[in-house]
Amino acid sequence: MTETQRKEPVIALLGQPNSGKSTLFNGLTGLKQHVGNWPGKTVEQKEGYFVRSNQRYTVVDLPGTYSLSANSEEEIITRDYIAEGNADAVCILADASQLERSLFMLADFAGIRTPAFLLLNMMDVAKDQGKTIDPQRLEKKLGIPVVAFSATDVRHYDGFYRALDRVLRDRPLLDTWDLEQEYQKKEGFTGIKELMPQTGMGQYSDFWLAAKLMEGDIPVTARVKDLLKPEDRRALEQQLSQIKNGALLTGECKFAWIDRLLKGAVQGESALHHWGNLTALRPADAMENRWRWRSFCWGWWPPLSLPCRLWWAEVFCLPC
Fold this sequence. Notes:
Blueprint: E1 10-15, H1 21-29, E2 33-37, E3 44-52, E4 55-61, H2 73-83, E5 89-95, H3 99-102, H4 104-109, E6 116-121, H5 123-128, E7 131-133, H6 135-142, E8 146-148, H7 158-170, H8 177-184, H9 189-194, H10 206-214, H11 218-227, H12 230-241, H13 246-262, E9 266-268, H14 283-299, H15 306-316
Parallel strand pairs: 1-4, 1-5, 5-6, 6-8
Antiparallel strand pairs: 2-3, 3-4, 7-9
């Protein structure tokens, strides 16, 4: 058996639209890629490979989505691909120039038991904004490799390769303890989590399942119910009937977790837009107003899907 005939590690690229996934995919694979459709779907499937040190690596550019909820075909394809154990490592891309919003994907991924690392892409843009980001501080909090990165600079992909080697060797999982503490502040979460299968479901942990059930995720709820005993299923239905605006509640938890994650790790020009007399507010008042705007953006028009709410919050409100 030659070196290139060994098992090919599979790297899945995960991120929101415009996070730089496609730029990284093209930078890694060049012309060694195939574009088609996911089986039975009209969603584009992009897969390629690169060879490094006589080892071939497969790269899958997952559809760009704002979250891992079941609001679209793209989101379902993305989370099912990861949850079925198809990837040896997940590379999560975040836009370093607007971390508070782009890290929502990381928060939604938390609880999926697949080794991962975080790329802070567009660091050049963040630097131009006057921001300084400390990847080591974020790495200490998250428990996975964090890399300052610019996908457009193909000559400097060394940080990506070093992080990939660490993930394939050490198999680190994202530390979810702080986020779970946020969820436990919400009434009903603990009771729902206690009814989840203790070993989770595939790559999904019981923690991740409980959060999705709170959000009213229909496919996940149906699959969990199929695994439960009749009495546990009835207890779960009772718990879920008491949850109101579950997606809003978990969204608040995720953004609170992101705020704490970034505290002390990001310095420089504030990412917040200043509208009207908001520029005159004291910092504490500005923070309070940000949460009011955020709650408004997430609470208004309940029928809107999560991507629409994130878009609305980004365009019309203080950034989430």
